[in-house]
UniProtKB/TrEMBL annotation:
Protein name per UniProt: ADP-heptose:LPS heptosyltransferase
InterPro entries reported in the protein's UniProt record: Glyco_trans_9 (IPR002201), LPS_LOS_Heptosyltrfase (IPR051199)
Keywords: Glycosyltransferase, Transferase
Pfam annotation, one family: Glyco_transf_9
Coiled-coil segments on the chain, per record: none
Signal peptide: none
Amino acid sequence: MKSRQHLVLIRLSAMGDVAMTVPVIKAALQQNPNLKITIVTKAFFGKLFLHLPEVNVIEAKVKTTHKGIKGLWQLSSEISQIKPDYVVDLHNVLRSRLICGFLKLRGFDYRRFRKGRKQKRALTKLNSNKKLKALKSTHERYASALKRYKLKVDLSKLELDVKLTIPSSILQQIPFNFDEEIIIGVAPFAAHKAKQYPLNLLEKVIKELAPHTKILLFGGGEAEVNALNQLSNSHHNCFSVAGKFNFEDELALISNLDLMLSMDSGNGHLAAMFGVKVMTVWVTTHPATGFAPYKQTKDDQFLPDLNQYPLLPLSVYGNKMIDGYEHVAESILPSSISERIKTFLNKKPSD
């Protein structure tokens, strides 16, 4: 008889969606002592689990070894070799369905998480009379898929508080002191421009937080690096880490922040998986679709004026803009963001 039950989770991308598996995985491990977990994901996203030694990663090399039907058959073979007791598809796209179908042929059962596509389509339909009723969160949807195997996954019992060690070589390059100063992260970019708060408005937030709050700026790609360097050079309380450190080092920095301010993007989920306070700016998307960071409250969500822009959200992923909504972000006042941040930081107990 096997002493431990082995659960395989399949979530190939994207970064924020993979990061949202972390609270669910931690809850499952805590509440099912005889459970071990392997996640199938892209190599880069496997780094999200380095602080969880009890979680193994199978790298999905979808651009090379595991490309196409033949490659996915090979990936299913690699998964079958660890003889999983449970398989859960947390992606529910063609590629993950094929992997599960191949595993079925090899004699392994599976469960699939339900995305709620119909409900999300209704929520993003361009209808001014639609009701913004919050859908089940992605974390809850992941947990529900695991519960279909009778596994215990009670997210209400899970508290996250993880601080990774920042290498001394990295600390030497940061002009702020994590032990003595309040340091927050700001990630002003997102996969789609329609989800971004304008940088000129964000600068007002930064000015209102100076001089007592130090800010690390996060981003990636040449254009973002250049923009954040310019922002950093213009404000003495800012330092851009974009393009300077590897992903593991950035995760260590994020885990030690006092707060993260992000768009509706992966950076918020990276911070939340460590238990860092996360505040998010929602422009053309909306937290009702279920993509809010783990355990985020409504007070920490900055939304446009829905009376002025009743068609929001325009989409689930922020990839849509319509006429008349180009300036929707301007209805979110910089002062509302900075004052909420100040209120939280003033109440935050010193370590």
